[in-house]
Amino acid sequence: LHHRLVECGSQTCSAESEGWGDFNALMMVLREGDDLDGSYASSSYASFDPAAYYGIRRVPYSVNTRRNALTFRHIADLEPLPTQHPIADNGIANSEVHNAGEVWATMMWEAYIALHRAHEGDLEFAEVRRRMGDYVVAGMLMAPPIPTFTEQRDGLLMAIAASSKQDFITVAEAFARRGAGSCAVSPPRDSSTLIGVVE
User: Fold this and answer.
1) What are the C-alpha distances in Å from 60 to residues 27, 42, 112, 159?
2) Measured distance CA(109)–CA(73) in Å, rounded
3) CA atoms in the 13 A half-sphere facing the CB of 129
4) Which of 19, 79, 103, 109 is most buried, judging by how many CB atoms fall within 10 Å of its CB?
5) pTM here?
6) Could you tell me if 189 and 146 are in contact, meaning their C-beta atoms sit under 8 angstroms apart?
7) What is the DSSP letter of 40?
């Protein structure tokens, strides 16, 4: 989906693509009645994660920062990883596309769960999922070629704002909780280390 809708060609954009893949899968896996504060592994394999806690990522996806405290700055090389919870450190640089993509998916998961919470009592679960799916597609279409994290965030937020002011605020606040608020700065578009993040 990402490569069909967004012109890509940078470390950042490739990382976003990895993150979109994880997020889209997680969005489809979450079911009505599931614990919104729970932990969700991405692609578990018994050969290296028999407990299915981490899956193929360093941390599970969760809005609970005692399980996943990754924020925007963790895409940058040399940035220490969180210490408040276990991490399946793969020994690979933060800027590597799977690791940096994990941060993008974490931001998107935060936004998706926030949207569910914001609509408890007024929209059915399936309606929130459909709404988020529409926002994702429109947000990709609104992104400029080879978007930085903040440009892709802005594409998504512009698409949401065109539909719902309240959803815009909800998702913007979710991004801010993960360090990508309105004053955040992405690393240079051509960076291979992704150093230069400002939360």
Assistant:
1) 14, 7, 15, 28
2) 17
3) 13
4) 103
5) 0.95
6) yes
7) B
